[in-house]
Amino acid sequence: MDRAPEPHAGWTFLTNHSRVLAAIAEDHTVRIRDIAVRCRLTERAVQKIIADLEEGGYLTHSREGRSNVYRIAPDRVLRHPADAPATVAELLSVLLRHEAGQPTASLVDHEGH
After folding, report:
1. Coiled-coil intervals in this record (predicted)?
2. Rounded to two decimals, what is the model's pTM?
3. Would you state the pLDDT for residue 108?
């Protein structure tokens, strides 16, 4: 069984909402329990985040048999005005490419400039 490491103290670059959305993007039938382990959250926290994402129009789900199937709204614009006009699809593209080990464009000059 996978065991989640201890939670990180202090600030982070990504929100729990973006982590949960990325987990769902990788597997549209992922279980809440598995999202919680992957994101190092409680199942209750994941349920609340999913509810937030659904309320905001970023995510929907339906029951298929005993499983939930999630659908992400890829064209939704990110919530913070400073992120506009970036979409959910653009955010997930960066996050999923990173997790797949694919190179991303370098934003930093290696000479420190």
Report:
1. none
2. 0.79
3. 41
